[in-house]
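Researcher: We're teaching a course module on how sequence relates to structure. For the next exercise, students receive a sequence and then see the predicted structure as C-alpha cells, so they can try to spot secondary structure elements on their own. Here is the exercise chain.
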Amino acid sequence: MKKIIVSICLLGFLFASRSTSLAWSAAGHMEIAAIAYRDLSAANKTNVIEILKHHPDCQKWKEAYAASLSDFDFDTFVFMRASTWPDEIRRKGNPYDHPLWHFIDYSLEPPTFPDKPSPYPTNDILFGISQSEKFIKDTNSTPEVRAAYLSWLIHLLGDIHQPLHCATLVNSNYLAPSGDKGGNDFFVKPADAGVNLHSIWDKSLGATINFRTELNYAIQISADHPRSSLTELAKDKTPVAWSKESRLIAIESGYLHGSLQGSTQADDAPALPVGYTKNMKTIAERRAALAGWRLADEIRNVVKP
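Model: And here is the predicted structure for the students to work with:
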C-alpha cells in the first residue's frame, strides 16, 4: 500500500505545477465540511469520527483542541479540521500528498470554449475522488490509510466546486496545456493592488479561521440554500458532472466569456468590473452548499453505518 501511495505522489511532480493553487481558503473548506457533517445521521457521524481518530495528524488536532477549543464540539472540530489537511501537506514530502489531485485542467479557449477532456485523466481531481473512495471502502486498508483518504474526500468535494479548479484559460498569453493555471497567472485588481484571479475566488468564503465563525456561516449557507432549492442535486449526480458545472461557471462568471481583462503581471493588472466580487460571493455560497450536501451523500455511500 505504501508503495502505491508514494508512486502516485511522485507522479504529480512530472507535470506542470500549480503550487499556489489551493482552492477555497481553509475557512471555505471548513464551512463545506460543517454543512456536510450536520447533515449526517448520528450513526454516520460515529463511523466517520471513528475512522478519523486514526488520521496521521489526529494527535496534533487533539492537542490544538485541548489548548483553545474546549467549548466547541470535538467531533465537529475533527471533521472540519480534516478538510484542510491535504493543502497543509502539499509538496512537503508527505507520502499521502497528491499535488495534482486538487484540480482538473479543462481548457478554456475563447471564443467558442470547446469542451475538451482532462489532459491528465489518471492524475486529476476526478481520479483523486475515485481513489479516495476506493481506499475508504476497502476495509483491508490500514486504519491510517482510510482516515487519510477520508480527509482527502472531504477536501476534494470542496475543491471540485471551486470554479477555477476546473478550468484553465488558454490563449496567446497562456499556452496549453497549463494555460493560466486556473487563474494563478491571471492578475486583476479588485482594490489597490494586483492579485491573481484564483486567490480572489479562493477567499470568497472567508480568509481567516475561527471554528465557531465557520460553523455559524455554514448554518447560514445551509439555511439560504436548502436541498430543496438546489435543482442541481437531482440533475448532476457524478463528480464529472460537478466538475462540468464548475467549468461552465468559470467561463460565464470567472472569465466573463473571455471578456475579463487581466495581466500576466501584478504590476499592471486592470481593475475588476463593478459588481464582479459581489456576484462571485453569491456563486461561492451556492457552490459551498452544493459541495456540503453532496459530500454528505458521498460519505453515506462510502462509509456505511
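Model: If you want an answer key for the exercise: Residues 276-302 form the longest helix (27 residues). The beta strands are 107-108, 168-169, 187-188, 195-196.
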